[in-house]
What we know:
Blueprint: H1 2-17, H2 28-37, H3 43-55, H4 60-67, H5 85-101
Amino acid sequence: MRISLIAAALVALPLLAGCGSDEPKITQADLSKALQDSGLKDAKMADCAAKHYVDQGISQEGLEIMTKPGTNAQAADPGTMGMSQDDATKAHAATEGIMKDCLSPN
């Protein structure tokens, strides 16, 4: 009986995991579009930058700040841009990758 309950819980876990949030997940494409909407007109550059930010593992809250112009960034600490310290560290690391990979003259 106990094994049946554990098995049922394991089967239901992936279904319940998707029910926790009503907010849509911000994707790499969403971030690229936000970068383009905020003035980065080169779509290839925006795609490359968005990939670096997402691959760096910035949280959904951090990505939300990045996609919403003027939310917290203007009044926030310039070092974190309104993000958590962890997300700001990841964003800085992503920016280094962007400088290396996305701005190269290839």
